[in-house]
Automatic annotation (TrEMBL):
PANTHER family (alphabetical): BLL5882 PROTEIN (PTHR36919:SF3), BLR1215 PROTEIN (PTHR36919)
Organism of derivation: Gluconobacter wancherniae NBRC 103581
Name the record gives this protein: DUF2147 domain-containing protein
Domain DUF2147: 11-115
Length: 131
């Protein structure tokens, strides 16, 4: 697996809770992910440091591994904590993301994201109301 080729993990993904859309794309020879769609009322949500979460890179340094998964890190914008993570696409419309601490995937949580094919995302990363 190389990040320079099109990977099944690349593209727009709707989170499991349907409250966020991520764009996963190459960053050099790695994959990275930005939050490009959010469900919110009022002001654009900010992270623990007061930065807008719109287009915040939360998935970083994902490199291909022998287990056919990408290994990297995920940022929790509310706490500022960074966790180890794995992403993989077991089928074309599905992305699995597993976040964990202390290098122990056994003690983690896996989410299932779906490829996003919906309406255009609005200004300030506002998700369409129909989701």
């Amino acid at each position: 697996m190389q990040a320079s080729a099109v990977n099944p993990e690349e593209g727009l993904w709707l989170t499991e809770d349907k409250d966020g859309i991520f764009l996963i794309q190459p960053c050099g020879n790695m994959l990275c992910g930005q939050l490009v769609g959010m469900s919110y009322d009022g002001a654009v949500p900010v992270d623990v440091w007061g930065r807008s979460q719109c287009r915040l890179q939360m998935l970083t340094d994902f490199t291909p591994a022998e287990d056919q998964k990408w290994h990297g890190h995920i940022l929790d914008p509310r706490s500022g904590r960074v966790y180890q993570a794995r992403i993989w696409s077991p089928e074309p419309e599905v992305l699995k993301l597993r976040g964990f601490v202390l290098g122990m995937p056994l003690f983690g949580e896996t989410q299932t994201w779906r490829r996003y094919h919906g309406a255009p995302i609005g200004a300030n990363c506002k998700m369409p109301p129909s989701l």
